[in-house]
Amino acid sequence: MYFTFLALNGMTSSRQRHVRRHHRPLPTSDRYYPGAGGDSEISCCVKYTVFGFNVIFWILGFALLIVGAWAQIEKNNPYSQLNRLSKFYLDPAWLMIIIGAVTFAIGFSGCVGALRENTCFLAMYSTLLGLLLLAEVIIVDIVGTNAVLFKFYVILYRDDPDLQTLIDWMQTDWHCCGINKPDDWDLNIYFNSTAKALKSEEAGGVPFSCCINGRELENYACGHRVRLLDPRHVGDVIYTEGCLPKLQQWLNSNFVYVGTSIFVVAVIQFLGICFAQDLRSDIFAQRAKWNRR
């Protein structure tokens, strides 16, 4: 029995040595732990740059989304909201919701893709960022100082409180009235000159924000029927220059600053796409190394 035990023990020891010899652990330099250093193909600098950059967009997009949704729910009943969906691009609240949702999606996909080294989310991030960059180019090229948008702003002035606030701010701060002239307010049914047959006090008038002394006096009736006065005295009461020429003049005066801002934003977005693609390439290279081992 004793000799049998020794023989079995010797065989066991021999088997253990054989297992240890053929299953030696990899050297420390050959090991890879996700998120750690070592012999990794993934650059921590690129990874956490993409992550940190998108945390800001994630938070900003979420904030815009919440504020826009709150403004849209609070200002009108659901029927009125659905009725204006066809012209959502004229509603500041809807624009805030759309911009917030896109920014949130870009920030979220960038953060998750970088932190979890997920190539699908990184591809989604690059695609969204590329589409956003393309959309910005189209908007700057087509919309720009398009008078058609201003026309709809005038028509819908009384139908949307947010839009009304925006127009009043523009006319008050830019010292302008209407698109090209005060008579453009004839496009609005409330200020149309023919509305005087309905005994409307606003017929032939303009919003209070067109009044020269509107800010100091806060007289909301100062623009009533003002366009029905003698044309020689209209300039003493309201601004006679349109807002579109004012906008064009401001863009021409600040062309360097506006152009630089657009260029910087485009470069940041392009670098974001490059960094995301570089990180994806590193992840694929690391996976290929795992497969070879």
From TrEMBL:
<keyword id="KW-0812">Transmembrane</keyword>
<dbReference type="Pfam" id="PF00335">
    <property type="entry name" value="Tetraspanin"/>
</dbReference>
<protein>
    <recommendedName>
        <fullName>Tetraspanin</fullName>
    </recommendedName>
</protein>
<feature type="transmembrane region" description="Helical">
    <location>
        <begin position="50"/>
        <end position="73"/>
    </location>
</feature>
<feature type="transmembrane region" description="Helical">
    <location>
        <begin position="255"/>
        <end position="276"/>
    </location>
</feature>
<dbReference type="GO" id="GO:0005886">
    <property type="term" value="C:plasma membrane"/>
</dbReference>
<feature type="transmembrane region" description="Helical">
    <location>
        <begin position="127"/>
        <end position="156"/>
    </location>
</feature>
<dbReference type="InterPro" id="IPR008952">
    <property type="entry name" value="Tetraspanin_EC2_sf"/>
</dbReference>
<feature type="transmembrane region" description="Helical">
    <location>
        <begin position="93"/>
        <end position="115"/>
    </location>
</feature>
<comment type="similarity">
    <text>Belongs to the tetraspanin (TM4SF) family.</text>
</comment>
<keyword id="KW-0472">Membrane</keyword>
<keyword id="KW-1133">Transmembrane helix</keyword>
<dbReference type="InterPro" id="IPR000301">
    <property type="entry name" value="Tetraspanin_animals"/>
</dbReference>
<dbReference type="InterPro" id="IPR018499">
    <property type="entry name" value="Tetraspanin/Peripherin"/>
</dbReference>
